[in-house]
Amino acid sequence: MVAPYFLGMPQRITPWMNFFQSVLETSLGPQFETPTEDSQQIEELDKQLCWKLKGIVAQITHRLFSK
User: Fold this and answer.
1) Reported pTM
2) Would you tell me which of 6, 11, 32, 35 could form a disulfide with 28, CB atoms 3.0–4.6 Å apart?
């Protein structure tokens, strides 16, 4: 369930959803799109700020719609 703060005035959540959508749609480049089994390469990619930001936004978006 979406918080009552947003239910009373849906226009409050619109800017946030637009921001989340733009973050999630941002291309990160081929190094993030190529599957790999190399644990060292995975650890390096996990340290990238852009990857962390997408992960956080994905978690927030999931929580908004799963409750």
Assistant:
1) 0.72
2) 32
